[in-house]
Design a protein that fits this description.
Elements: H1 5-41, H2 44-63, H3 69-103
Helix pairs in contact: 1-2, 1-3, 2-3
Length: 104
């Protein structure tokens, strides 16, 4: 429990900020989860669209001061890295499937 009056006021203000920031943070996390689910399912077109939405949500969270810009940049980089790895794996699989047919 806070000891001073100023600490009590700050605690109330922190609760208000937490309530205001929660939907923004939740939306960003939900969109990130949708990207990861799409990648896991192998649906790259859906994943690309979801990445755009996730990046937008992260940028809005930064503008509103909910997330630090470096935190959002790190999350975006990780998402794009996963998407690019999945795309590379998919193209490699399609390349391997085409190779035996070309030999025949």
């Amino acid at each position: 429990m806070p000891v001073t009056k100023s600490a009590e006021r700050e605690m109330r203000a922190a609760e208000r900020r937490q309530l205001r920031n929660r939907p923004v943070r939740t939306l960003a996390k939900t969109r990130i989860d949708k990207v990861e689910q799409s990648i896991a399912a192998g649906d790259l077109e859906k994943a690309r669209a979801a990445v755009t939405e996730a990046v937008s949500a992260l940028d809005k969270a930064v503008e509103k001061g909910v997330l630090h810009r470096n935190n959002a940049a790190r999350r975006k980089a990780r998402l794009l890295k996963k998407l690019n790895a999945a795309a590379a794996a998919a193209s490699q699989k399609s390349g391997e499937a085409a190779t035996p047919e070309e030999k025949k």
